[in-house]
Amino acid sequence: MSIAHAPAKVIITGEHFVVHGQPALAAAVNLYSTVSVEAGSPGIVEISSTELGVTARFQAGKEGSFIGDGHRMLEPLMLVIEKILDRAGGRGLGLRVRVESEIPVGVGLGSSASTAVSTATAVAGLLGLKLTRDQICELASVQERSIHKKPSGIDALVTTYGGVVLFKLGQPPFHLEPTDDVRIVIGNTGASRSTGDLVSRMGHRIQMGDMDLMRMSDAVGQITLKAFEAYMRRDFHQLGQLMDENHELLRQAGVSTSQLDNLVEAARDAGAFGAKLTGAGGGGCMIALCRPDEGGRVSKAIEAAGGRSYSVAVDRVGVRIG
Ligand code: MEV
Question: pTM (2 decimals)?
């Protein structure tokens, strides 16, 4: 049996506009997906997801592609597995794949990227296929493109490498040294939504030449560069202020909700350096940055405002076997 774990991610600044070429700052956090893989009946790949409560069986068809039994939710993951089987020259092999996760689904924490990356790693591990992290990230992105239509790739990158990353499309990522001097508290509104739809809508408005959005895009790019500098100086007051500014711009762009705004305000009132929605918005999660000793207070405030809170630390490792 081969087992792999991969972390969740939060976007500290720059979501949405990162798809259109602006930089974004993100961190891997210590909530994990776990995928275990063992040999199964030849030509059959069975995937079961504890979170989704479904099991799908895929059978190698005549043309070599796998035919599923209708559980559409697991088809994108099968695309990743198919690619790995191809690489290993193992199309006729059978696999039993079990997906478990403590990352809530569809709320902006990168659960699909994390699952794809842990699946790619576990399957490659079972087949004895040596892959670099870049290759794992690339293979996992097949699923991301299938689910999210036009992802920037930041989720797959962060869950693969772990740590804190400055990301810009078309440029090598810059890995920042993680710190324990600050705490991230996540607040989940519990309202799930489709990242792909939200990204498409924003993309459509930008393509149509929405001047307000284009101005916001430049402003958010500047915020990320300042956030990067503040992080490097360990100036978390400044970083928090920049997160507040980023939230305001995302609110004006129409991707926040009143629930998200309430959690953000509650976290700030409880003493966070700053707070903002994280991921695509439209529901999902927010994050607050705070001093480690204030994490408890901020968590309580988020819960009192109706959110589910997770006080998390930065994951420094990314995907791992075992
Ligand atoms: C999703 O975690 C972040 C978005 O910017 C989409 C993407 O970058 O692919 C909304």
Answer: 0.95
